[in-house]
Amino acid sequence: MNDIQKVNSRAALMQDRIAASGTYLLLLECDKRIKVSIGKRGEMTAEPGFYVYVGSAYGPGGISARVRRHRKAATKPHWHIDYLRAVTKFLGAWCVHHTRCEHAWAQHLIQSGSATMPLTGFGSSDCNCTTHLFYFMCKPEKTELETLLNTKLARISYQDHGSRRRIRVRKRRSGAKSVATAWAKRP
Asked: What's the pLDDT tens digit per position in 132-152?
């Protein structure tokens, strides 16, 4: 395998991983008590503490695109979580790829007794779950969540471009340009 094939192979692998579907957890922090309108679901009082939202992403861009969207407060709310994001701080996200387990995770969190349900029906209007949003007074650690969910979680991290380098390879194929682009950590 030559250098161009290696880089193209690596770029394809990275793209597959970035666009992978699966189930994710968002960790949010609220620093003050505040009433929030959650679209048609009604009003909720957000308490100071930590919120864990269970979601899944099976559309274009997969988990990476969905979490990237949730990192910012939405200018035009679409999902229930978009309304809560307006009054909370994004702290992190974890996921499992290629596995649809959001309903099982919601059940585990309900049954655990470690978290409370701030609003019935939050994030679960398209399923039979009681809620997909959970409140913790103290910040839940990754290991605690893994124990509660009985699974190993991968951390989703986003770094600025300053800590990464761009790998870009151009090759000619039938007179047209073919470009592979990927991001990799700097050595």
From this structure: 999 999 999 999 999 999 999
Q: Rounded to a whole number, what is the largest CA-CA distance in the chain? A: 63
Report the alpha-carbon distance of residue 122 to residue 37 in Å, rounded. Answer: 12
Cα–Cα distance for residue pair 69/79, rounded to 1 Å: 11
pLDDT tens-digit readout, 117-130? 999 999 988 888 99
Distance between CA 24 and CA 157 in Å, rounded?
13
3-state secondary structure 49-118: EEEEEEEEECCCCHHHHHHHHHHCCCCCCCCHHHHHHCCCEEEEEEEEECCCCHHHHHHHHHHHCCCECC
Angstrom distance (rounded) from CA 58 to CA 98:
9
Contact between 57 and 65 (Cβ < 8 Å): yes
Distance between CA 80 and CA 163 in Å, rounded?
33
Contact between 10 and 18 (Cβ < 8 Å): no
- Give the residue among 181, 99, 133 at the shortest CA–CA distance from 27: 133
pLDDT at 158 over 80: no
pTM equals 0.75
